[in-house]
Structure formats: C-alpha cells, structure tokens
Amino acid sequence: MSGKPKLHYFNGRGRMEPIRWLLAAAGVEFEESYLEKKDDLTKLQKDGSLLFQQVPMVEIDGMKMVQTRAILNYIATKYNLYGKDLKERALIDMYVEGMFDLNEQLMSYGFQPADKKEQHFANMVDKTTNRYFPAFEKVLKDHGQDFLVGNQLSRADVQLLEIILMAEEGKPDILAKFPLLQSFKARISNIPTIKKYLQPGSQRKPPIRPEEVPKVIAIFY
Ligand SMILES: N[C@@H](CCC(=O)N[C@@H](CS)C(=O)NCC(=O)O)C(=O)O
Question: Mind listing the UniProt keywords for this protein, alphabetically (predicted)?
C-alpha cells in the first residue's frame, strides 16, 4: 500500500475527472485502477467496495469513498481548498453546483447519438455563453480579485478552469466575450501544480473518442 489515493473508474474523464483535477491542484499524487469491462465493475460491487454499486470510488485515508461530490468535499477540505469560513464555503458550493450542471451537459455530449449531437451542441453553447460564463465573469468583475472566492485558490477555481478548457475543446473562441475569464484561465493555468497537470503525460484524460463510447457503455449497462 503506497499511501497514495487510489482512483477506481474507467480510463476517461466522466465523473472522475474533477477529482483528478482537484488532487492534482492540491499536489497530491494518486494511483488509478481502470475498469476495462463489466466484470471489473461487478467484482467491485460483489466485494462490497461500492456502497451504492457505483463508481467513482476513491480509496483514501482508509476509506472507500463513493459519490463524486462527497469525495470532492473531502479532498477540498483536507487540502484547504474550500474557503476559510461558512460564507466562503456557501459561495464555493453555489458556484460549484452551477459548474456541475454545466459539466453534465459537456460530459454527456460525447455520448449523444449522431442525430442528437447538433442540438445538444447548440444547447451546450447557449447555456455556456448565456448562463454560466456570464455569471462567473460577473463574480470576478464584482469583487475584482484573482480568484472566485476569498482571494485565494479554491476548488471552485480548479473546477472552473477544467470546464473552460473543456468548453474550448468544443468551441475554441467560447471565451471571446469574457475578458476576465480569459485572464482567469491564464492565471490559474500557471499555478505550478496545475501547470504540471496540463502538461502532456499527466494523468489528465482526453475527451472521449466516438469509438470508445460502446466500450464505456458496456461497462455500466
Ligand atoms: N451520484 C453518483 C452517480 C455515480 C454514477 O452514476 N456512476 C456511474 C458511472 S459514471 C455508475 O457507476 N453506473 C453504474 C450503475 O449505476 O450501476 C456520483 O456522483 O458519484
């Protein structure tokens, strides 16, 4: 046992990617065990490792944690990325929940059937540019600080950068109307632990390729 957190998921982004990002931003090394086929999930389910029979699952500090948000809450608290008081934490929760809503749309794009992709993409761009990015641009404008909350790095900054980069993969000029998000992106990308995670060869996962979709679906359905 190395003492490093061990992440159990398929070898792709999905619900595990924000967890990888947060650990990386906190400078925590982690190991991964990839589900390659349905049997791998069944094995974890049968040996009692998954409280609700679902992944992501993270072995950390003697626990087998499930539920993405619970895992992120734990890591953020442990590594001081969750604000310094109750009000900061409330703001972080609010922002991060909005990011989860947007992330759900971004993440599911690759899994849409061919005839639904165009509509899904248009809706995704609309929500990103007319609902979520204006909100985060306004937060930065209103307080004029470098980070979303409390003028120090928090999980909200890490998750927003992840989402910005994901949205740019679909539409490279998506930040065109958001000057403060552009400088936010440059600033947060330059934090040494994050810069390292953005280098080729890190544990960061690429977007899912169409030919990988059936394999992932076969694991879970
Ligand atoms: N609320 C859970 C949802 C987890 C979830 O839906 N996991 C999927 C994979 S991304 C899964 O394990 N599906 C198998 C199943 O539900 O039996 C979380 O956020 O962790």
Answer: Transferase
